[in-house]
Amino acid sequence: MTLAGxxxxxxxxxxxxIGGCAAQPLxxxxxxTQAAAITDxxxxxxxxxxxxxxxxxxxxxxxxxxxxxSAPTVTVGIYYHIGFRIEPRGRTGFxxxxxxxxxxxxxxxxxxxxxxxxxxxxxxxxGSTRLDFTNYFQIVPAHTLETxxxxxxxxxxxxxxxxxxxxxxxxxxKNEVRDNVLNQPYGGFPxxxxxxxxxxxxxxxxxFYGELADIDAAxxxxxxAFFETYYAPNNAVLVVAGDFDPAQARPWIERYFAGIxxxxxxxxxxxxxxxxxxxxxxxxxxxxxxxxxxxVAWQVPERGTPEHFAFGLLDQILLQGEDSALWQKLVQQRGxxxxxxxxxxxxxxxxxxxxxxxxxxxxxxxxxxAPDTILADVDAEIARLRDAPPTAAELExxxxxxxxxxxxxAGSSTRFGLVDLLAxxxxxxxxxxxxxxxxxxxxxxxxxxxSDVARRYLRSDNHTVLIVEPGQVPAGxxx
Amino acid sequence: xxxxxxxxAVAGAAAASEAPPAPGAPRGFSIxxxxxxxxxxxxxxxxxxxxxxxxxxxxxxxxxxNLDEGDSTWLADVAVEMLKEGTAAHTASDxxxxxxxxxxxxxxxxxxxxxxxxxxxxxxxxxxxAELVADVxxxxxxxxxxxxxxxxxxxxxxxxxxxxPDSLAGEALAKLVYGDHPFGRVLPAPGQLATYDIxxxxxxxxxxxxxxxxxxxxxxxxxxxxxxxxxxxxxGDWSAGxxxxxxxxxxxxxxxxxxxxxxxSPQSSVRMAVAVPHPAHGLYFPTTLTNxxxxxxxxxxxxxNIREDKGYSYSPDSSISARRGSALxxxxxxxxxxxxxxxxxxIYREIERLQREAPxxxxxxxxxxYRAGLFVIGNSSPNGVLGQLAFMDLHDLPDEFLTHWxxxxxxxxxxxxxxxxxxxxxxxxxxxxxxxxxxxxGDSVRALPELEGARMP
Lengths: 479, 457
Prior knowledge:
heterodimer; A: alpha+beta; Cytochrome Bc1 Complex, Chain A, domain 1; 2 domains; six-stranded mixed beta sheet; five-stranded mixed beta sheet; 16 helices; 11 strands; B: alpha+beta
């Protein structure tokens, strides 16, 4: 979802998950190593060690600096603590629409000028809206850092949007929804549809992309109020990672951002979800989809707790990778589908959210298999971990996968994942250095804790099942 | 300056009070070094020693794929999927577990001209990763009992693809542009997958896999001497096999239009394609810049027009799709139904404007800096460099393609951009496909003057 633009393509092709856009690889952390000595003989390296310099400006803007010189670029991210969970009632999709408006002009940059400034300096630019934040980011050649900081500050100071530009972006966003949801088989399944049926609290259970009518109803006054309420420096974090000198960057940040006044922030609404104590089942017809889809979701432990780390390992053992228990059972042995996907936070990872969360798994299968047959197999695999802790080999394999993911994040030349985690830990926990303790958090989990978490959270009587019923494929669709 | 400006301010309020601070001096960038060794059986190994974390990718690229399947569409995909179903020494489950114990997942994929088998692992497992990749490539068991499941999975992917407007449009476009060449057949016919048997799979493998078609790429951090020994051990006695096949396609140069009805589609999927210089052609650099300026960047002319000005589309995009000896410029946009013809018309208008007048030096320079920036981002990761080298090897490009890349690009003039548009991005030679609700689209697309006289299949 999201984008105010296009994605940067990555070098290697990753095996595509079934439904397409939703599922993210999962996980996690980040980090770079100081060119650790690597030989076939050496013991496993001591984990990641990301440089983290953290401070706050007088106006409350959080700033994280993380210098690293392996590529002559810098990645700049600004994360505002406003996601689609808490957008106004009657204005579903507004947080995302507003993300688009942030590209429509500010005091010193007219429409398209922000994008031209970044691209014309050799960078890429985008933004995205998630449950609990909206982010704006650029990857630029190292020597253009000051220019980008100035531009981000310019639009934090205030927007200059016309009615014409609002109408234009309403059209773009409606096309985005058609592109990614309405005109796709399995569009929005299950990342958009599952929260609406598994959650009870409106904030967690509304249509995050927005009803087209709500998108149309948005006004300039709505946009002004939204900006005034949420786009304050004391509701944001600025992260700079890459090839730069913090001693040089810090005065720039002071110069461009420190004068933006802090504003009173509204109390965050109560996002709490009641504990689910019974199974729920919903289905809907997807007019375009040719085969049934099945998703199951459970509530997960509170983020950052020892149980949450244990759940992260449980997720690795059950669902992540082709070695996982559910892949082996559902895909390799039973042949229900070509893949099973999912995880904690389908639009991100274990750490970049701030509220209630679901663990979701999903697949597309053939009509001759009943959903309950698949669900019985799912439950049997989970029951194995409810009944007995994972073996030492299983646990070590899960930790190895996490370590590899952390290195991938740390070694990525885009530094997206790194910036994302630093921003999330700063914004939600006021502690970006937490990034360097992720692996320790997982290492502290015992096999017994994993079994305990499976018993408490992944029961047979507290999940939500979502079924996609295939519609009739329009006759003319077959050439 | 400290005041937050109201949103109601008009665009005119933006009239330049403050200019962006100028960028500093650009830093140098050198492409990570690589070297290649060749084993006695003809298999080459390219080493890229680069990266900031203890990970390594071992990727075998075999010069085969859909190109070699004749009219057995997706036979290559079936055979390559079956590689994962076990070797003489390992079951499929073993492979998945062994891979995970190294911190990786074995990935296999059949492409049009390149098939890949590889894994990215923690550095200490580099040698074992090489052995696993070699085992899967050299010793597949092709268990007949697993074939029905693999075929059912592909059949499911196929029916989903046929429900997806993007796949339908892509299939039609390929057929019109490449005709009877294997590149013209993107999706199998109904019932076709069910006719494939294990003998066909084995036959495809035996005809198309071997040392002479294979190059192994290693990228990341690793013990070079130990890994080189492991690779020589793992691949050194693989039989040479056939040389790569040479079947360059010829792309249509006829004006063609196909309208595919998809009742109630809430958007129309527009695709436009035309042959342009391929990567080994002398005009490739100006061609890729032309693409970026026209439709290949957020700030490009077509995106500015049909997205940021008109709001017809969310993510219009143009790109160069390259095969050995043949490349296409492809424009794609999912557009509001009522603006289908208008969107196509605006795309033509941008092409024709570029044909008429050269872009300003300022506009072109911005695009050059954008591309130079992407070049640095793309080549500052081990897997980015690996992908770049595999692309160059496919197209027989010399090292200078990479080492002179930035200089070659900066040498392009505004007039060359217009020349490319005039010589190659020629509306009268284009193939146009629209998938959408034809009841609502009506005659509007057919009536566009640029499509007058189009062959309609």
